[in-house]
Write a structure and sequence with these properties.
The chain is an alpha+beta fold. It has 2 helices and 2 strands. It is elongated. A two-stranded parallel sheet has the order 1-2.
């Protein structure tokens, strides 16, 4: 028996800093995968977060990237 998924969207694109990974991030990403056949995640780099409240507390890019891969 083959399971065929019916997706609402063919492609979802997400973006953010994904800093200090938490359950909100997990739910956001999970919802994208549940509703879309393909998901692309953009990860913000240094110049784009300078206006955040505490830019010096943002985790290193590689740490945030690795957290997304888990």
């Amino acid at each position: 028996m083959q399971l065929i998924m019916a997706y609402l969207y063919s492609h979802a694109i997400l973006g953010g800093t994904f800093d200090h990974s938490h359950v909100g991030h997990e739910k956001f990403i999970s919802a994208a995968f549940q509703g879309s056949k393909r998901v692309t995640i953009g990860l913000v780099q240094d110049p784009l977060w300078v206006e955040k409240s505490y830019p010096t507390s943002i985790e290193d890019y590689l740490v945030r990237e690795n957290n997304l891969k888990l």
